[in-house]
Amino acid sequence: MLNKKTLIAAILVLTVFVVSSCTGINKPAESNNSDVESGAEEIKQGQIMEQYEKLMSQKTDIREYISFADENIEFLSEENAAKLIIQMEELQKEYLDELENEYYCMDQSILFQLYEPEYNLANLVPENVEDEEVKRILKETYELGYKVDTSEGIFFPIIDYSFYEKYSQYLTEDMKDYIGIMAVESDKMPAKDAGLVISWEEVLERAFNQESFLEKHKDSVKYEDIKNLYNKYVSFIVYGIDNTPLFKHVESTMNDEAKIAYQNSIDKDSNLSRILKEYYEVIEREGFKLTDNVKKFRDEVMKKF
User: Fold this and answer.
1) Total structural domains in the chain?
2) Which residue of 31, 96, 179, 302 is most buried, as measured by CB atoms within 10 A?
3) For the segment 183-198, what is each residue's pLDDT rounded down to a tens digit?
4) Which among 114, 69, 120 is positioned nearest to 91, based on CA atoms?
5) pLDDT, tens digit, for every residue of 210-242?
6) What is the span of the domain harbouring residue 220?
7) Angstrom distance (rounded) from CA 303 to CA 274
8) Residue 298 to residues 10, 63, 99, 305, Cα–Cα distance (Å)
9) Mean pLDDT over each residue of the chain, to the nearest integer
């Protein structure tokens, strides 16, 4: 007869064997399930990209393309999702001319009547319009990812980059950052009627964000787009703009708000900040006046960008 110690030992060995056997059975099953799911996802993604290529091989309606992206983007890799969104932006740019023509041909006084009381573009929505043609154009504007803007008394459509924010979770990091930068731009343009409509502080803040993108995403397909935008902002910072110059037209002294914005920005850890610090020191030595030395130095500053 087995003694008590021998019996306990036998039970322990049997328990370990059973647990090990169960574990050994489960792991391959999990792996197989994962492989099957991964394979199915790859097949679905391949099918979606085939549809994408087919869409691109023919004249694609922007509305049809947006529906395609909405239905399929969640099944794609970040890289393929980014490809879809980059193409959507191109289609929007192409269609923009046609949509602009519709605005120039419409009765814009209807839009002005809605806009004028509060000077609020948010009032320009289809629900507020009785004219069927204007209502149709506004409806199309918002459904296709545009928004209404105005300058010098004229209303016109622009791409609404906040429209893309619903796709950001599926995209590569550079495209997420690109959409973030461009959404800020379309939410409030920096300049209108040859003058800044955002503060000097915000001009600098946007420029630093653009600079950060350029440093982080040197290989991005959107690098040149952001570089061009960044250069525009650097010009705002260094020269100002016709109706909001860095140096006042009559006194030729530095804009007070710009001076404070410079002081708050020149100690940041960035290339732009370091160059602006040198520029500011020259301006300070010249008594904050637009002297020949300042003019010469600012021209040299622009060459560094």
Assistant:
1) 1
2) 179
3) 999 999 999 999 999 9
4) 69
5) 999 999 999 999 999 999 999 999 999 999 999
6) 190-305
7) 15
8) 88, 47, 40, 12
9) 90
